[in-house]
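Lab notebook, bench 4. The sequencing result for the construct came back, and we need a structural model before the next group meeting so we can plan mutations. Quick request posted to the team channel:

Model the 3D structure of this chain.
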Amino acid sequence: MTQASAPLNSGAPQRFPVVVVGAGPAGLTVGNILRAAAVDCLVLETETREFIEQRPRAGVIEEWAVRGLEKRGLARNLLDRAELHSACEFRFDGERYRFPYAELTDSHHFVYPQPLLVTDLVREYADVRGGQIRFGVRDVRVHDIDTDRPSVSYTCPETGERRTVHCDFVAGCDGARGVTRAALPPEQVRVARHDYGIGWLALLAEAPPSADCVLFGCHARGFAGQMPRSPEVTRYYLQCPPGDDPENWPHERIWAELQERLGASGVPPLTEGRLIEKRVLDMHDYVVEPMVSGRLFLAGDAAHLVAPIAAKGMNLALHDAFLLGDALVAQLTGGDDSGLGGYAEACLRRVWDYQEFSQWLSEVYHGTAAGDPFRAGTTLARLRRLFSSPAAAAAFAEQYLGTAARY
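Done. Here's the predicted structure in token form:
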């Protein structure tokens, strides 16, 4: 067993084999993998437990990711409660086109809101497997990652004292605005970024889904999407100018645009309801290379961000976490460092594959609203090809479900 040096609240100098910064899906999955192998670690999170268990985020999990969670004993509630989706629907030119991807791939999407997954993961880590976690910490800093004695310091929320935790490895899982990515030496880092030049108005509605699957509305007024989250709550997206003010979108305008952009011949109007979230997302991607510096290993949005165009972000975070957790266990329990040595390369192959697909899908979603007749025409040609060419349909299904990226 690889253990910490002293109880967390003892006031003595602290040491853990691994410090995980960030308690999202990636960080909690890494922590659970370590605890299952009797490796102690400390998870540091700036928010409260209540906040991370309620924060609305993604909800679509690819089947390979669910099987990875199941293999590690982390999918019991998910498998019992998630909705299985076997098809999606495109709406364009006033018509509806159902795409039955499960028939082409034998794979499904699982719809399980991220707050539920985070709740499961933190309960398993802290309450079942006895993992150490500190919520509400402030001013987290990473030190000496280029040595064999890295450390992480933070301000204790109860006492205001500055505490330092020494470790062998740091897992940076603290998202796009976290501190771990900033700890990478600037001269060693390349950040590849792509801006789409569009915004999405992200909405949560207290209303049941108006269809049994995800809807993609490709309309001259802009993209619209419906993503079911539960029988009572539905996620919607509306294309808007980047940087738009959510206050420019009152209740009546939002539902009028959703009804128009997602309307199609022969389908009833959307079921409307109270909007409980309304924020504008500027669509952009980035990839940080390398994802590793010394003893610091990035995972999830700390290392790469993919716009929610193809619902890939949480899946990439879980892929990173599986690889990083398994590699840390192999090194700390058996001295095998091959997994850590190949970690970044293995992650980035899937990352770039998903980035390419999201960029392609963005043109499908947004090309008809570009104000360019040529782009609109080629976009409609792509859409029609999905429903007329078995080869095009099979390729799209593999990428949409992540089954083409077998890394």
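The mean pLDDT is 93.
Will bring this to the meeting.
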